């Protein structure tokens, strides 16, 4: 079975890790959101791509969900003493990733090639691809005006009220090298439990069309997001945050939908939107949870 998974940050990375334990490396491709990439301190930073790769490599910080385990902060401490911009935390180990990626990009290498090289260095055998080799930037329309995503998400800690989103550069961007081929040869596509608005929508707008069975997993459980601002975004845009709202978001693309046991009462309503559903435990607290959910989703795909 050839599977392509679309992933954003922490939730996507966890399910990608579970899928990697459940499939052969050649059966799995992860396409990662790069809409939240940005340039900071002269460096090209790819938060979602790094979170997915660090998680697959066993390097991720389990406490923060971002960055490297066993990190040290000498760079940030000295930057702060100099009065430099310290609102986006860059650990010493993490800095090596950003510095080397920035150097390679300046020499003309593509983000796809750099990611492939980094994955090889970190021992990741499956294929991880950025959604595009062209810059696409998620812009957040708020009650304080339009903000670049990391300005909204990290610097302003999601405080401005969200009114909508714009993906700067998306109309001129195509799928990254290998992404179209992976989607063409896939037996099914999994939308990981990532933020539908800012993690998955940028990918869908770049790949434009998926002619395969698509199964989406809700990142919202019991009306709240497991991590991140997805529920807050739904509420501020006048939509009650729920698995039902996520299913409605994917109604034109998903052929199957996975929701948590906690939201079992929403199953009948979701079936009116997406006929095939799976109700299971979707919360991934442990590595075993990731594998269990991955196997549940793969079994569900086999039944579609």
Output the keywords.
alpha/beta; seven-stranded parallel sheet; 39% helix; single chain; three-stranded antiparallel sheet; 304 residues
Describe this structure in words.
With 304 residues, this protein is α/β, with parallel strands linked by helices. The chain is globular and about 60 Å long. The strands form 4 sheets. A 7-stranded parallel β-sheet has the order 5-2-1-9-10-13-14, sandwiched between helices. Strands 7-6-8 form a 3-stranded antiparallel β-sheet. It is built from 12 helices and 14 strands. 45% of the residues are buried. The longest helix is centred in the last third of the chain and has 17 residues. Helix 1 runs parallel beside helix 2.
Brief sketch in words of this structure:
This protein has 304 residues and is an alpha/beta fold. Helix content is 39%, strand content 19%.
**Helix and strand composition category:** alpha/beta
Number of helices: 12
Strand order, sheet with most strands: 5-2-1-9-10-13-14
Work out the radius of gyration: 18 Å
Total number of strands? 14
Strand content: 15-25%
Percentage of residues assigned to helices: 25-40%
Give the overall form: globular
- Main sheet summary: 7 strands, parallel
Oligomer: single chain
Q: Which whole number gives the mean pLDDT?
A: 95
The low-pLDDT segments are: none
**Element order: H for helix, E for strand:** EHEEEHHHHEEEHEHEHEEEHHEHEH
How far apart are the termini?
A: 14 Å
């Amino acid at each position: 079975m050839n599977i392509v998974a679309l992933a954003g940050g922490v939730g996507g990375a966890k399910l990608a890790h579970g899928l990697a334990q459940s499939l052969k490396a050649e059966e799995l491709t992860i396409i990662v959101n790069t809409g939240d990439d940005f340039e900071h301190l002269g460096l090209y930073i790819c938060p979602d791509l790094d979170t997915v790769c660090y998680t697959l490599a066993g390097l991720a910080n389990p406490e923060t969900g971002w960055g490297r385990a066993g990190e040290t902060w000498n760079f940030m401490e000295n930057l702060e003493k100099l009065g430099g911009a310290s609102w986006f935390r860059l650990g010493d180990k993490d800095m090596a990733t950003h510095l080397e990626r920035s150097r390679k990009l300046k020499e003309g290498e593509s983000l796809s090639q750099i990611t492939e090289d980094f994955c090889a260095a970190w021992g990741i055998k499956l294929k991880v691809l950025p959604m595009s080799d062209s810059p696409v930037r998620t812009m957040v329309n708020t009650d304080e005006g339009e903000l670049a995503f990391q300005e909204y998400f990290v610097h302003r800690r999601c405080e401005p009220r969200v009114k909508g989103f714009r993906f700067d550069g998306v109309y001129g961007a195509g799928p990254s090298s290998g992404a179209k081929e992976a989607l063409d040869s896939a037996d099914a596509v999994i939308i990981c439990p990532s933020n539908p608005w800012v993690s998955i929508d940028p990918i869908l707008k770049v790949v434009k069309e998926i002619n395969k069975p698509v199964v989406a997993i809700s990142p919202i459980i019991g009306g709240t997001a497991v991590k991140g601002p997805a529920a807050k975004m739904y509420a501020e845009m006048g939509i009650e945050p729920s698995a039902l709202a996520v299913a409605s978001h994917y109604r034109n693309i998903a052929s199957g939908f996975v929701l948590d046991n906690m939201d079992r009462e929403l199953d009948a309503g979701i079936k009116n939107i997406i006929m095939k559903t799976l109700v299971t435990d979707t919360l991934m607290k442990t590595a075993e949870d990731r594998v269990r959910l991955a196997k549940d989703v793969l079994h569900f795909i086999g039944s579609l």
